[in-house]
Design brief:
This protein is α/β, with parallel strands linked by helices and about 950 residues long. It contains 43 helices and 25 strands. The protein starts with 6 loop residues before the first helix and ends with a strand.
Length: about 950
Amino acid sequence: MLSPDPMDLADDLRAILPRERVLARWIDRIAFANDASVYRLVPRAVVFPTTIAEVQALFRFARSWRVPLVFRAAGTSLSGQAVTDGVLVVVSRHWRTLEVLDEGRRVRVEPGVIGGLVNQHLRAHGTKIGPDPASIESCTIGGILANNSSGMCCGVEQNAYRTLRSIRLVLPDGTVVDTALPDADARLGRDAPHIAEGLTRLRDRIGSNATLAARIRTKYRSKNTMGYSLNAFVDFDRPIDILAHLMIGSEGTLGFIAEAVLDTVPDPPLKYTGLLFYPDLETACASIGALRESGARTLELMDRASLRAVARQPGVPPQVHGLPDRATTLLAEYQCADADALASIRDAVGRLAPTLPLLHPPEFTQDTARQAALWRVRRGLIPSVGAVRARGTSFVMEDVVFPVPRLADAVGNLRELLDARGYADAIVFGHAKDGNLHFVLTQAFEERREVERYDRFMRDLADLVIGRFDGALKAEHGTGRNMAPFVAAEWGDEAYAILREIKALFDPDLFLNPGVILNDDPQAHVLHLKDLPAAQPEIDACIECGFCERTCPSRDLTLTPRQRIVVLREIARLRVTSPRGPVLRALEREFTYDGLDTCAADGLCALACPVGIDTGALVKRLRHVAHGAVSEEIALALAVRFGAVERLARATLTAGHALARVLGPARLATASRWISGRLGRRLPVWDPALSRAARRPERTPAGAAGAILFSSCASRVLAAEGDRPLADIVARVSRRGGVPLRVPDDAAGVCCGLAFGSKGYEAAAAAAANHAVERLWDWSELGTLPVVVDASPCALALKTAAPLLTARNRSRHATLRILDGIEHGEALVAAGLRPVVRHRSVVVHPVCSVRKLGLTGALEGLAQRCSDVVVVPIAAGCCGFAGDRGLMVPELSSAALLAEADEVRRGLHDDYVSSSRTCEIGLTRATDRPFRSFWHLLDAPAAEPPTPRLATDGPLVG
């Protein structure tokens, strides 16, 4: 159920935090009600602290109000750790400082930094962080530490617990502890004597009980995240060290981790990978020991049901088809630092392989493309189940640990249990080297009998793992809500009593994430379950994992793709249960701006989504649905008469520059923002980064042409330099490269349709695209000459325009050779074109369409021909400008580029390039650096490079 109106709570919270960092609207609360688990709780408020002092104030507030306080980072938690009906404290929008130390041997990180981003910063040093969860490109350090994450390679030797060097934290009573200080232990005894004394007492109690101490050591030789990290009491003696490691895996129930220093591990550059096919589970598991001894870093087991699930996916090896019913595979990978080590590995594998009872000869490879194809088999398991599950069912993924010598029996028993409880479609896979198995099943929670079936399964699972095999119910996903009722059964009464004392020692008021890790309710795992009502066909496959969020330009402004889906599902639910209720009205009203207006519709979310959902495409359709018949007719009229639109845009641009000279750019921007707001954001906001109106391109010299240059409408309106159009620069470089271009004289008014399609004007987009293809057909001499497009977004739109076209134009489109400008530039360089001026360093921003076209490497390659150093910002993503969206909703682009702008401003560079004129405007505005087309690098005579700016010292901000 939805909790009561929380505005009274929010008003008091705004005495602690600025108003904009306290969210209590219905849309905000619903958006944060779900994480990646099967649980759902609607928070009373969502807050975004930025300092330790604010966290301390929130602790005081929670105790005073007796309201639960829960920390949330990326929300990729699979066990319900990141949801609450109290106050949700989100750290992912801030707390992103990252500092590489000791030439990559250590790294200082805050909880909001994405794990994959840390590894990108460490890559130059040949190191990485130890934990390597499958969600590392989406989850943050806060979640990695709070859940003691591990992964496919790190085992228990390189997990968060083992690689922790120091930690800075805030205890529930407000005490700040920094374990890196030389006198940290003495400070703890002075500032929090009850904590120091309590930890000492528990250490001595465990140490005096040889049986319990031995039990703890045995449990942590394998992966285990059930309960608190009791191994801290046997691994360390000083209270400060026990405290630091007790926080790892504590899931936000003992305090707030504000910062950590982690030891890094080597990141071997060479890998040797193969897929091994066995006739059954027993023989596969029997070979694990030999493969481990041979040096395998990863051994990923996949049962027959897993292989069936991925059999139809592209790139799956042919051996997957036609396997026996009990067949099993192990994906084995070896990693090393140099060619000599690789040669030794190849020899070892060559000696071992003939002794293995395999169905097919093993095919190991060091080719990165073939390795990627093999890993797609493993990584395709989750999306394969998520995409085909029945509408309205939830996606459940659990992880358990069995003793490796008994793994074959355990897998068979687990398979039998799944089948017996009606989960025949479930798949079983996992990190066989560590005895760590995952299973994925789908479950409906709408009917009581289904909830009861799930309850029976979970209890049977506990009996199987604990009673029959003495394993662990959680390996690397954290205890969470789903396993909290079973902690006592796994640990026993004595250890469980210590776990309870730990919680009481730190949080006697029980306000930090209550019910997580420890829960007295035996039914806690089947409470607050979420159902996934059908909402829109495009998104019903969403498993709410959150992998899409890191790519979204509006993630720090309004909603992410996952949150848009969560809100749409709630709207669908309320339209059935409360069709006239105030909550539904509020959500529908607030979704217009948060869900539609601030979506760049770039589609990058689909690249990160395990099931390929393009939320941007859905937003375009919803925009279309929201349009009235009159606006659709107006859009169609504009598409047909687009030449007039260009003339108006050019005139407006000229007038704007004239007004800017009189009023000043800042005043004009302020005034236009006010006018646009008064008119419901129907007019663009003046941007000082806008260039002057472009003059007409130079006439094409007489003679044969090697290709046609189609200049986008943005390039035709916005000058590339002075009043010079980009077409002149592209044509000149091409002439010098021996491929003269023909620039059509009648290109004005021809649009690829993207400007209309992104706004949901489908008829207008189709009309524009058909007109464009007709003109391209004529200009290219019936498809004889290739067509070069000078803007990557337009190139992508034209390349993928077929669904919008008539049958006749679809046939023409299939014949046309449409090239992005990057492809053309790459061909010129390959044919011998050389830049006249070579820069010291160049920053390259690959726009969304470049990533979708797979041309990021080509764009970097062009820049490398022109520069000693090429920098692609690690934080580079969608700039949020999205055609004219950066002028209509400028705050979207500003929010999208915060991290990238900070990164760019810290460097000293000679030039800044991209491949979309509108994106370059947003980048220039955000970074205060003059971004321009990559064609300027190839131009001759070279234009004056921008004046480089000196960087400021300091840590990186992600």
